[in-house]
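Case study 2.
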Amino acid sequence: GSELQRLHRLRTLFRTGRRRGGLTPVDGIPALASYHEWLAVERQLKAGCALADRMGLRAGQRVLELGCGTGLLAEHLVERVGSQGEVLGLDAMALRVQIAHQRGRYNLRFQVGDPCSLQRFGAGSFDAIVANGVLHTWPDAAAALTECARLLAPAGCLGVATQSAAHPHPAERLQRELMAEPPYADHPPPAESRRYPVGADELDRLLRGAGLVSVQVEARPETFLHATGEGALEHMQASAWGHFLMHLPPDLRDRARAEILRRLEALRGPDGIRHDAMQIVAIAFKSP
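Prediction:
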């Protein structure tokens, strides 16, 4: 009860824009982690559970979750596979894995890792692989999906849920536009903070190119609203785990944030700042 109340207070604080200046990785990591968890509950967990439903996860299966975050979806997945199954969650950020460890049990484990570190696992190690809201962080999605295909057992299933490249978050789009302008263009973001979203047709091609079969790709429209520009910015800040604009020198960071906020407020309608998103959901299988 108290934990949910705390998350609700954070939700109200961020959505109403009462917090000024944005969070940073140093400023309130617990608060940032909690807000990220709320975002996961509101969006990522719902999408991940729907993806698991579509994949038809069964008792006794071995499941790998890529980009497991703090382990919320992994807890749901381990309930699907039961006491005879097991779930391994990988995430590139040690802090998230540290939080996830608190959810661990004998058949639910977490490790630091990303698609570049999958060589540690043998071929056919998993019956199912879940990639929920993480594919856009992969610089080489083709190589990552090929590795996923290698790790799947015969007839194993890969499930992917990701946001369409054609429907970016307003704050993300404005950031990209602003970073192409002087003086910000002199400070390119580091590779780990870049995004590599794909469209439905491209994802279909990538899955087939990885050697997977029975590929099904569906695009689902979604609409999200932010009450204020501050709320939209805090969403991006939390989604980026505190790294939004952090590649800029402090003076430019403040200028960029103020300019993005100004442009966001110009987009605000009667209901707030609207994000007409498109979620892409795909499942594909290893040949039997």
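Residues 84 and 190 are 42 Å apart (CA to CA).
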